[in-house]
Each structure stands twice: as C-alpha cells, then as structure tokens.
Design a protein that fits this description.
The chain has 115 residues and is an all-alpha fold. The chain has a domain of 72 residues. It has 6 helices and no strands. Helix 1 packs across helix 2 and helix 4 runs antiparallel to helix 5. It is elongated and about 60 Å long.
Amino acid sequence: MIEMDIEELRRKYPNLAKELEGRVMCIEVRGSRTSDEGFQIGMPDAVDYIRRCKSVQEAEEVISFLERTNQISKSKADELREQLYSQGLESFGPHKEFGYYMKKYYAKRIGNELS
C-alpha cells in the first residue's frame, strides 16, 4: 500500500482529493456479518438462513416464512428486505454451502478431542 499525505494527494490527484474530502460517492455499508468469529453453534437466526440462499427470491421466501411463523417481527422482516433489495444478497455475508457447520465446527471439535 502506498502512503501519501493529503497535500501530495491534492497535488497529484486533485479530482480524487475533492471527491474524498466532499464524500461525493460515499455508500453506507451495513453488512450483517463479515465473519463467523465468535459464533456459537445453536439455533440459526434469520441471517444464517439467508446466507444459505442462492437467489434474492429464495431469501425473500425465507424472510416471509420467518415473519409468517413469528420467528422474526414485522419490523425485522422489513429491515432484512430493505437490506436485501438495496444492497443485495451478498451484504449478509458469504454464502454458506450445504454441510458448512459440519465442516467448520463439528470436524474441528472432533479433531481437538482426538488430539
């Protein structure tokens, strides 16, 4: 990574400096999960289910089901839908394939017990 003070940035890249200082293209990032660190195995929450979806349509079905069965509130469902449609499925974190928990947690635990 190149380090540069603000004066050098202004001199070499005046338009970029204006955009950065004026926050012209700032986008709020509100991803729900960036990693699984600190995650405890238990009942999956709405985001865990959404991360298994392969399409926005699937994610919408999951949100609707969780709302209909009162596993999440209407306000939480609305918040998840807003994030889904404005920021996309990827904003919830990386996709979880079938067997994710088995590979990540169970196999690791068994390996530690055998050691």
